[in-house]
Amino acid sequence: MISALRPCPKCGAEIPADAPEGGCPGCLLESGLRLLEEEAQTSNAQRPTSNAQLRSERRASKSARMSGEFGDYELLNEIGRGGQGIVFRARQKSLNRTVALKVISLGQWASEAHLKRFRREAEAAASLEHPGIVPIHEVGERDGQCYFSMKFIEGGQLDEVVRRTPMSIRQAAELIAKVARTVHYAHEHGILHRDIKPGNILLDQEGQPHLTDFGLARLVETESTVTRTKEILGTPSYMAPEQAAANNAEPTRTTDVYGLGAVLYQLLTGHPPFAGGTTYETIKLLLDTEPRPPRLLNPKVNRDLSTICLKCLEKDPERRYPSALALAEDLEHWLKHEPITAKPSGFFTHSRKWVRRNPSTAVMATSLVVLVLGLGVMVWNHKPAVVIPKSVAVLPFQNLSDDPNNAYFAEGIQEEILTRLASIEDVKVISRSSTQRYHSKPANLAEIAKQLGVANIVEGSVQKTAAQVRVNVQLINAQTDSHLWADTYDRKVTDILQVESDIAKGIAAALQAKLTGREEQALAVKPTSNPEAYDAYLRGLAYNLKPSNANANLLSAQKHLREAVRLDPKFALAWALLTYVDARGYLTTALQPTIALREEARHAAETALTLQPNLGEAVLAKGAYHYFCLKDFDTAVRYIEQARQILPNSSRIPELLAYVARRRGQWDQSESYFNEAERLDPRNASLLTQHAFSYIALRRFPEALRKLGQVLNITPDDVDTLATMASIAQAQGDLPRAAALLAPLYPNPYNPGVLEVQAYQGILERRPGAIIPKLKEVLAKPDPAFGFFNGELRFLLGWAQQVAGDHVAAQETWRQARSELEPFVKQQPENYLLLDDLALTNMGLGDKTAAFALTEQAMAAVPIEKNPYDGPAPIEIFTRVAAQMGEPERAIIALRKLLSLPHAGAFIAVPFTPALLRLDPMFDPLRSDPRFQELCKDKQP
């Protein structure tokens, strides 16, 4: 089994396997030093419309400005972070010099293994005196923080430097030769580095390399409890196979040789030898596949240098260079145009590697060869025509602009090309949500193509300056690694508006796709003649495309799209996207679902369709408005099906149809649409999650868990997915399994969905004491962006206090919750989630009349006859109110109905089950009723 490293959701640093209770030491350090000024930014992926789904996908990112005092050091700014701590540029006050200061927090967050590894880093680096190794100045501890200071290298990390100024092939070989000699020096002094990567090689102002960060270094001849742990140590794209494999192989000097080869590969090709969409996929590629020869990715790399690089990357350590010195010498031979010692792998070597990785397939292949030889004489003169499959995935375009803020431009160009291709019926195109997790120019095209189910891959780059834009694009047959088509487009910013259509035409022509007259006409349409409006549109598009469509992201998208249509009121494409942003935000409550928001969505949809009646995005936007805002399913389907004729390969169309069919209770039809959408968008985690929610509503929990497992393969350790799996365990009555899934998840103000599931777990266990302080902490400074959801969390706090026996505190909490919730009703009269929360709060306060009136209002807002998916949620709230307010007859009648219906849950992602009825304290007043006891029995299918 592969134990993948997990990225910190806050800072992106990889969390070591031995991190205490799953926390990120770097972020814990920030908290301990109190140096972080938070800019809260709520996060909410395309929020489903069941109550639990709406809550489970709220997230946020944060940015920080680092400054402060640390003993003799004045912290100037953060310059790097990793699994162990943070590196600052600092001024050592006593000596008035600038240093690099690495700090790790101790106390309750740091394990002994962390401290040993940290001290080992300092001791290892301090024992090495070499011009190519960053020297250590001081090692110490202060106020619970362990630190050491190093020489500050003016220049930057290798990856950052080459991003600004590309390095020639010869310069790359010279640099790696120097670093290899430095590594050899460390080996000679008994130390392995084990984490050689571009970020750990610093270039000074003269361009000389300096190796740093011995955080994974170990004494070659010494074993300890730290070095004997079996967790993965290293950076996945640059680690050696023996570091990633779950076996007893110990790293050796050749482990660092592999790292040097991986960095050389990066310099020669522009990307590491293996890079999957996730850490798990990267490690799987590392273990199961061979790197593509560098010279195939960069024709300027000659055969000898490619051979040197591949020898370093051999999976068998014994086939690599025996030492870093041997690598350095071979590189120096190449630089002097002398013969090298490395030999390219021949046919039999490649065959042996393949057989070793695929023993079963090899046996079958041998049998097949015998059969083919027997038939060969009969068909030797028959040569079938080669047909290029017309399927393509467009990988993220690389932003080559000097300004990283121009990334939105590259993202927008990629999405617009996809949209144009989706209008061509003869080409299957994979949606962006399935490709966005890959690198711009990955090495493993064949594997990626297999994952996405396509034959061809489009790679590209965008370089934008003040007045010029250059777009490079190439179409590659992933199976043969052959280039089918490539072109470069140099345009002025004012002339960029047609480039996406030109690229789509070039790809279609290379794939020999047939274009109808309507398709050619659609590709020729210029979206706007105003470059400023188009730039605003691309900015809005980039925010809308972010993986987590948080409230802040949707607000930013909305702002830029409003600016686009202000600058060009005839910009139909921008009006269409504004409709989609507004309407989706209205339904999911990612934007507060006010009447004004719904009205803006209507106006935008009508304007887009009036301006361009045949624009696929405008027709689809009109359907989205009727679905998201009006719940007019018949009209929505009519527009969506009309859009399908214009955008035959858009995955959004079957996805929307799946949602509409689900809300109509057409479960089989919805399943069919989900499957169709997944064929066009196979790695869209949000789409897969929605499919899982359908299985959950149907109480088909094993199938839901399998679908959620697919999500985890794409986004490992996703907290919302794990919380949903815990909800399923709760519905099955397996509280220990739910607790085990929830234990490593640390809820915070930016992920209240997880907090809610954990709160419900404490309530079901009737031990809510642990969750009450956390709920109080979150609600001490409620985020206004969450709107009515803050009142819902406060209701949960009151319920937890009630179950804990603190009735006085519960009453006070519920009074405050009611005062927070009521102001939202006027602006959101159709928000049944808000009405449900307010009904429960009044129930807690004993106001029976108000509680029942609110449940009736909620049921009227989403009648079960018109919406069998969401409609039962208010009925669930009704049963809770009836049970608590002394109406057992009404409660039991409603419960009988709910247990027979598939639906989305009101509290968490799951519908009512007998197991939940047995556990939920809110139904305690019914426990002695024989009719209720019968409902609590598990019925055998």
What's the structural blueprint in terms of helices and strands?
Elements (H helix, E strand, L loop, with lengths): L5 E2 L6 E2 L9 H9 L17 H6 L11 E3 L2 E9 L4 E7 L4 E9 L6 H15 L9 E7 L2 E7 L4 E2 H7 L4 H20 L2 E2 L8 E3 L5 E3 L6 E2 L21 H4 L8 H17 L9 H10 L5 H4 L5 H10 L11 H12 L11 H11 L1 H21 L11 E4 L3 E2 L7 H16 L5 E3 L1 H4 L9 H8 L3 E9 L3 E10 L4 E11 L6 H12 L6 H8 L6 H15 L5 H17 L4 H17 L6 H17 L4 H13 L4 H14 L5 H12 L3 H14 L4 H13 L3 H14 L4 H13 L3 H8 L9 H14 L5 H10 L8 H15 L3 H19 L6 H13 L3 H14 L10 H13 L3 H12 L14 H6 L10 H6 L6
Parallel strand pairs: 14-16, 14-17, 15-17
Antiparallel strand pairs: 1-2, 3-4, 4-5, 5-6, 6-8, 7-8, 9-11, 10-13, 11-12, 17-18, 18-19
Q: Return the average pLDDT rounded to an integer.
A: 79
Order of adjacent strands in the largest pleated sheet: 3-4-5-6-8-7
Instruction: Specify the CATH architecture of the largest domain.
Output: Alpha Horseshoe
Given the helix and strand composition, which structural class is it? alpha+beta
CATH class of the largest domain: Mainly Alpha
According to CATH, the homologous superfamily of the largest domain is Tetratricopeptide repeat domain
CA gyration radius, whole angstroms: 30 Å
Low-confidence spans: 1-7, 9-23, 28-67, 106-110, 215-233, 346-388
Number of beta strands? 19
Helix count from the secondary structure assignment: 40
Question: In CATH terms, what is the fold-level topology of the largest domain?
Answer: Serine Threonine Protein Phosphatase 5, Tetratricopeptide repeat
CA distance, first residue to last residue: 35 Å
